[in-house]
């Protein structure tokens, strides 16, 4: 893929955390990659991918730079029918910016859907707070 493309993004459908408590509380344990997920996703970078994006997690998971290349472990539920746990009502929208064929950056926009399943972008203060939570869950543990 790399020989024919300037930038390779691998989207991975991986396993789900499935460690949610039996109540409507946030559960940051699922912010982290599940066992083996970190090594599995990093392997795609080792094989030449420029970015790896996990698409299976029902709640957003952390992200990191590995060998200066971004890995997003899970984007969460943009549209779904789960309202049992607050974090499954969250998602991340990634907007990638390129200029003259070169990757510049990715903007991460957190979303939330309400009990009527209406999805919306969350405000700037809440976005910063939520993204900070995800950064602290990263494999590097900032």
Quick structural gist:
This protein has 142 residues and is α/β, with parallel strands linked by helices. It has helices at 37-46, 124-136, and strands at residues 9-12, 51-54, 63-66, 69-72, 90-99, 102-113, 119-121.
Model description:
By secondary structure, the chain is α/β, with parallel strands linked by helices. The protein has one domain. Helices cover about 15% and strands about 30% of the residues. It has two helices and seven strands, in the order βαββββββα. It has helices at about 35-45, 125-135; strands at about 10, 50-55, 65, 70, 90-100, 100-115, 120. The strands form two sheets. Strands 1-2-4-3 form a four-stranded mixed beta sheet, covered by helices on one side. It has a three-stranded antiparallel beta sheet with strand order 5-6-7, with helices on one face. The mean pLDDT is about 85.
Q: What is the global morphology?
A: globular
Beta fraction: 25-35%
Q: Return Rg in Å.
A: 15 Å
Instruction: Describe the main β-sheet briefly.
Output: 4 strands, mixed
How many distinct beta strands? 7
Strand order of the largest sheet: 1-2-4-3
Helical content class:
10-25%
The number of helices is 2
Keywords:
single chain; 142 residues; alpha/beta; four-stranded mixed β-sheet; three-stranded antiparallel β-sheet; 7 strands
Topology of this protein?
Layout: E1 9-12, H1 37-46, E2 51-54, E3 63-66, E4 69-72, E5 90-99, E6 102-113, E7 119-121, H2 124-136
Parallel strand pairs: 1-2, 2-4
Antiparallel strand pairs: 3-4, 5-6, 6-7
């Amino acid at each position: 893929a790399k020989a024919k493309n300037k930038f390779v993004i691998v989207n991975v459908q991986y396993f789900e955390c499935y460690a949610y408590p039996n109540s409507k509380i946030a559960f940051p344990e699922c912010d982290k990659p599940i066992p083996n997920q970190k090594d599995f996703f990093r392997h795609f970078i080792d094989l030449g991918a420029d970015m790896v994006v996990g698409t299976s997690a029902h709640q957003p998971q952390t992200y990191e730079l590995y060998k200066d290349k971004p890995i997003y472990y899970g984007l969460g539920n943009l549209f779904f029918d789960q309202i049992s746990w607050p974090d499954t009502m969250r998602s991340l929208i990634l907007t990638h910016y390129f200029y003259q064929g070169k990757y510049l950056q990715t903007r991460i926009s957190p979303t939330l859907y309400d009990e009527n399943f209406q999805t919306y972008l969350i405000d700037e203060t809440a976005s910063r707070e939520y993204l900070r939570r995800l950064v602290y869950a990263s494999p590097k543990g900032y």
